[in-house]
């Protein structure tokens, strides 16, 4: 591998241009897509290299009003954020007894009928259905920690996904307010949540380099470039996006034998919408796909390198051998992964996600300040080496199959 072609310094310089929030379907994400497109236009070109964009739409709930008021035994309104995707209460809200049900265990929930319940943790699909079955009238989640101050006291924005019937509504309060609600013995509250659905547009960016000899076999290198609304997502995942850019530049000069596609996905944070749209649109062509190499969470100095492999176990051995050869520490994990690689594996294409443990994901602290040249360069080299070996192998070293066990887990994941 030509190491001089990979530059962590250049990657970091590029990443610093994206220190803004890129929530899917907003101006921020559109601006980021434009920057990536322009950068490709200026830096990656040649015969057999093509670029295109694939826009897609998705539905998002906009919160119009969210309120939580204690009416007994004291009167106080708390600062809350509405849970998106769980519908609206009647216009004037609903008033009901209030109860803390901790983790929603069977014993606590036996007292939940007709009550607005405070829960410890996040209400996702399964928990939501449990609360509905227990007859709860509404729910309050909590976010944050007891040591938060200032703007960190704002409750987190959360969404309920994958639930069609939404008979009950909920909001999020900050940890400190949850403590107060329990300690002051709030026994009756009024909950108001109003929201409406709107259509938003996101897009995937696709650069293809035709293979010189085995053009009918396709390898993909991918990362999402959107962020959560809480922060500018340098670690999650602009760092991954710039690593993919480094590889894209590399292979535009060191032309691969197999066809390679470099993919920047939008709307990952909304539920892998970008990669799901891609595998849907390219359904027929997926038969030619051999492997997806995804990057999600990268670039921080302190942390460990992990590769999650969703495919046959021998892929772990092969990747481990490459990492040994490169002398770069990595832990291999054989499992499904909560990122865009899952969309490929779900459709039968073996996939991996290169990942780095780190600090501050999905918070306002996830900025370029914690990203380093050293880490970006290391991860870029490791991934470039893996990609180069696979792109140039005489015979592809593992079959295009995903074990049944993972297919089943993925069916549950995407349900
Ligand atoms: Zn991510």
Characterize the overall form: elongated
Indicate the mean pLDDT. Answer: 96
What level of helicity do the residues show? 25-40%
Number of helices: 11
**The number of domains:** 2
Query: In terms of structural class, how would the helical and strand content be classed?
Result: alpha/beta
CATH third-level topology of the largest domain: Aminopeptidase
Tell me the distance between the termini. 41 Å
What does this entry look like structurally?
- The chain is α/β, with parallel strands linked by helices and 415 residues long.
- It has two domains: 3-48 and 210-414, Zn peptidases (Aminopeptidase), CATH 3.40.630; 64-197, Glucose Oxidase, domain 1 (3-Layer(bba) Sandwich).
- The protein has eleven helices and 15 strands.
- It has helices at residues 8-15, 27-43, 106-109, 125-133, 175-183, 234-253, 273-281, 313-326, 341-346, 373-392, 404-414; strands at residues 49-72, 76-78, 81-84, 94-100, 116-118, 138-143, 158-159, 169-174, 188-209, 214-224, 258-265, 289-295, 305-310, 331-334, 351-356.
- It has a 15-stranded mixed beta sheet that branches.
- Helix 4 links the parallel strand 5 and strand 6.
- Helix 1 crosses helix 6 (234-253) and helix 6 packs across helix 10 (373-392).
- The longest helix is centred in the middle third of the chain and has 20 residues, at 234-253.
- The chain is elongated.
- The protein starts with 7 loop residues before the first helix and ends with a helix.
- The mean pLDDT is 96.
- Bound molecules: zinc ion.
- Zinc ion is lined by residues 224, 236-237, 268, 296-297, 339.
- Residues 224, 236-237, 268, 296-297, 339 line the site of zinc ion.
């Amino acid at each position: 591998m030509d190491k001089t072609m990979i530059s962590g310094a250049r990657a970091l310089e590029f990443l610093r241009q994206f220190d803004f929030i890129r929530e899917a379907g907003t101006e921020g994400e559109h601006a980021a897509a434009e920057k990536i497109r322009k950068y490709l236009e200026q830096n990656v070109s040649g015969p057999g290299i093509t670029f295109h964009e694939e826009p897609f739409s998705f539905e998002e709930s906009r919160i119009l009003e969210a309120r939580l008021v204690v009416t007994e035994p004291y009167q106080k309104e708390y600062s809350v954020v509405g849970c998106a995707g769980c519908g609206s209460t009647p216009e004037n809200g609903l008033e009901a007894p209030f109860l803390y049900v901790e983790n929603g265990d069977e014993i606590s929930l036996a007292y939940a009928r007709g009550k607005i319940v405070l829960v410890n943790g996040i209400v996702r699909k399964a928990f939501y259905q449990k609360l509905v079955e227990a007859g709860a009238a509404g729910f309050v989640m909590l976010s944050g920690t007891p040591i938060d101050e200032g703007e960190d006291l704002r409750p987190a924005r959360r969404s309920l996904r994958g639930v069609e019937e939404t008979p009950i509504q909920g909001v999020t309060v900050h940890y400190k307010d949850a403590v107060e609600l329990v300690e002051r013995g709030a026994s009756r509250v009024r909950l108001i949540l109003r929201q409406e659905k709107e259509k938003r547009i996101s897009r995937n960016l696709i650069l293809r380099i035709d293979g010189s000899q085995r053009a009918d076999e396709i390898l993909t290198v991918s990362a999402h470039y959107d962020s959560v609304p809480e922060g500018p997502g340098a670690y999650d995942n602009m760092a991954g996006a710039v690593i993919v850019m480094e590889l894209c530049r590399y292979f535009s000069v060191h032309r691969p034998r197999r066809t390679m596609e470099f993919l920047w996905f939008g709307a990952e944070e909304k539920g892998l919408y970008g990669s799901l749209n891609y595998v849907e649109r390219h359904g027929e062509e997926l038969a030619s796909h051999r492997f997806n190499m995804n990057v999600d969470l990268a670039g921080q100095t302190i942390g460990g390198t992990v590769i999650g492999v969703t495919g046959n176990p021998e892929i772990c051995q092969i990747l481990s051998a490459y990492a040994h050869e490169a002398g770069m520490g990595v832990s291999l994990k054989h499992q499904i992964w909560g990122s865009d690689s899952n969309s490929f594996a779900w459709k039968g294409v073996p996939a991996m996600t290169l990942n780095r443990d780190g600090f501050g994901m999905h918070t306002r602290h996830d900025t370029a300040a914690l990203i380093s040249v050293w880490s970006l360069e290391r991860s870029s080299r490791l991934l470039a080496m893996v990609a180069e070996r696979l792109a140039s192998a005489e015979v592809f070293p593992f079959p295009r199959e995903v074990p049944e066990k993972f297919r089943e887990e993925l069916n549950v994941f995407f349900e």
